[in-house]
Design a protein that fits this description.
The protein has one domain (about 5-155, about 215-285): Alpha-Beta Complex (Nucleoside Triphosphate Pyrophosphohydrolase). Helices cover about 20% and strands about 40% of the residues. It is built from five helices and 15 strands. Strands 3, 4, 5, 6, 7, 14 and 15 form a seven-stranded mixed sheet that branches. Strand 11 and strand 12 (about 200-205) form a beta hairpin. The longest helix has 15 residues, at about 5-15. The radius of gyration is 20 Å and the shape is globular. It comes from Vespula pensylvanica (Western yellow jacket). InterPro entries: NUDIX_hydrolase-like_dom_sf (IPR015797), NUDIX_hydrolase_dom (IPR000086). Keywords: Hydrolase.
């Protein structure tokens, strides 16, 4: 991979990605091929309840590490959902100077929806080729985990209770949480909290909490890990041109990845943070 050529390509892609005009917010059609909003009505313990949910495609995600360059291979793209989350509740006309398209840029793992009748690892191979430009055999992929998820991210200052290993309290709450599993990567602590849907990244008393909930939507994602080399980078990447995808390729070394996930607020989904944390915990020798 020629770094100069990739940087030039990224500059061109970034201009195309942010060349967005005439944003309008409309009601979602009931025949959308991507999401299906429904209202579920049921009786629980004698009480009638309703719950509005959204069903969408399952997906694959890939933690990609280039062993030649010793860098993680990531992608950045415009996500309308991320942009929409930055808008006020009621907005008729969107002022692009006040709400620039850059608000919708997210840094992610290479990923894609499961919309083909193929083994998941083959879909992962396709996404690696289309988004990142690497050709890797199925045997190079290692399945990490399959989970159902929807995410929210919040940050807190935390107080570690001295003398109580594995216990901590949030500064905004008096509740004491019990850590079921914790690993330390240098001065970064990663934990899963028992009896909750919380995944934690703790760095310098700043706690990023990923709420891996399934409240209004829960898609299934299978996460893979693959190692690639410069010799395997034989396609341009940048997304499937036939589908109008515009994806910027991003490289991060291990230190840059650590700094990013502990920066307090990141423009990335929880699958990204989980995948990078898994890499730091399990492939730290790189």
């Amino acid at each position: 991979m020629d770094g100069i050529k990739q940087n030039t390509r990224n500059e061109i892609l970034r201009k195309k990605i942010l060349d967005i005009e005439k944003i309008q917010i409309r009601k979602c059609p009931i025949d959308s091929p991507w999401v299906k909003p429904v209202r579920i009505c049921y009786t629980q313990d004698g009480h009638e309840k309703v719950w509005d949910v959204v069903k969408s495609h399952d997906s694959v995600g890939i933690v990609v590490f280039n062993t030649t360059r010793k860098k993680l291979i990531l992608v950045r793209q415009f996500r309308p959902a991320a942009y929409y989350a930055c808008l006020p509740d009621k907005v008729e006309k969107i002022n692009l100077k006040q709400y620039p398209p850059s608000l919708g840029l997210t840094l992610e793992l290479c990923a894609g929806i499961v919309d083909k009748d193929k083994p998941l690892v083959e879909i992962a191979r396709d996404e690696l080729r289309e988004e990142c430009g690497y050709e890797a055999p199925a045997s190079a992929f290692t399945k990490i985990v399959t989970y159902r998820w929807k995410y929210n991210i919040v940050s807190y200052n935390v107080n570690i209770k001295k003398g109580h290993k594995g216990l901590f309290t949030l500064s905004k709450s008096s509740k004491v949480f019990d850590i079921k599993f914790i690993t330390t990567i240098e001065n970064i602590r990663i934990a899963i909290i028992q009896h909750t849907a919380l995944f934690l990244i703790l760095f310098k008393d700043i706690l990023s909490i990923l709420v891996l909930g399934v409240g209004s939507g829960a898609t299934k994602q299978t996460l893979f890990y693959v190692e690639v080399t410069d010799e395997m980078h034989i396609y341009p990447g940048g997304g499937a041109e036939s589908e109008g995808e515009l994806i910027e390729l991003v490289e991060m070394n291990v230190e840059e990845a650590k700094e990013y996930i502990t920066s307090g607020e990141v423009q990335s989904p929880s699958s990204f943070l989980f995948g990078i944390s898994w890499f730091l915990s399990n492939k730290h020798g790189h």
